[in-house]
Design brief:
464 residues; alpha+beta; Rossmann fold; Dna Ligase, domain 1; D-amino Acid Aminotransferase, Chain A, domain 1; 3 domains; 8-stranded antiparallel beta sheet; 5-stranded parallel beta sheet; globular; binds adenosine-5'-diphosphate
Amino acid sequence: MFKKILIANRGEIALRIIWACRELGVRTVAVHSEADADSLHVKFADEEVCIGPARATESYLNISAIISAAEITGAEAIHPGYGFLAESAHFAEVCHACNLKFIGPDPEVIRMMGDKARARAAMDAAHVATVPGSGLVDTEEEAESAAEKIGYPLLIKATAGGGGKGLRLVTSRQELRRFLPQVKAEAGAAFSSDAVYLEKYLVGTRHVEFQVFGDEHGNLVHMGERECSIQRRHQKLLEESPSPALDDVLRARMAAAALKAANAVGYANAGTVEFLLDKNKDFYFIEMNTRIQVEHPVTEGVTGIDLVKEQLQVAAGEKLSMKQSDIVMHGHAMECRVNAEDPVTFRPCPGRITAFHVPGGPGLRVDTAAHADCLVSPYYDSMIAKVISRGNNRAEAISRMRRALESFIIEGIKTTIPAQLRILTDPDFIAGNFDTGFMTRYQDKPATPPGEASDSDRTAVPAV
Ligand code: ADP
């Protein structure tokens, strides 16, 4: 095992990695921006290095500063967390060139999966179904003729997109013409690549993803699914495992496809294979995330596996600590991402937290780096805490989540908690009856009094 690693991240995930390192006896180096000097990840790491000003491009995305910090402190490996450089194949290559182990998959796998068009081609070759779509489209004419074949509604997708950005729903030829240059320009600015393709928009589907884990000895397992259909602006708000939509037969089929996808690229370390699942139980690959996910605690809740410790062990060259038959799911786990956002418009609301009290009690876990009198900076992601509930069944996980969110005291800023509490009392949500359009329909309808059935239109196309 490594003696010392550097954590190229901030916030709750940096702390989460520190906890895993402490349990393994690995020393930690925190890097931080000038704005984060007083952050908890800096306080709890064994060593700290300031790597630049608040702006992420000058600090958490500053590869030379991070590599220098690792060299100065004698770290042997770098854990990138999620976001920032976690899916930068270039960063992983620089780490290896500098004799630092990148805690994640091979750079070439990151590069392939980070390019949605290449990933789709790899999945087609491996006979994993992808959403019907086009190859790269550049001009208006190319896009229009591809769109005629696919049919509307469809999505313009940036090949390098992520985090809900670089996606645009279009319902007509006029919209395609209008938005194609816009998406290309936005993608060029945000991801340094303006390559886009078209994908059929699958109405009324669920986002169901599978956690996979490989080691460097050719072993590969899956750790079940996470249901992530509760989203706003194509970004997840609440996740759970198991998915209310899966039975054992469907789970086995989807798991086999996820393993096939990971196997096709020789995957090592933690990864997530994302699918859209329709009402006919057909499912389609949308992308693979080559890193630890925000929602990994949901899988930890039902499997009892510590995914971050496993990541470190696998990166250190150890074999996976379990076989597929050792992985058994127990009960139900659910996560709410508490964001510093207006609960109605979901606009970020950074500011100072004046009071902060974390809920506790049976079946509850809260991952956060926030505290009273801390500043939620406009420079970074608006997520301030993850609340994870566990129960013997879904109903218990929901009731624990409700009482946790009701007793979570956060003053001074607005949070998404009121929106999540509303979701948790919605009859369709409680019945497990929802898809990725849930929030769009939901925002348009008045709150349903508890116990009253709602009549949702399951075929509506959300106005993205
Ligand atoms: P990102 O990389 O930005 O997370 P994804 O490709 O994973 O983008 O898609 C994010 C979300 O957008 C999905 O979870 C789903 O809700 C929606 N989505 C993506 N592709 C499709 C599609 N072809 N049809 C319907 N919804 C889609």
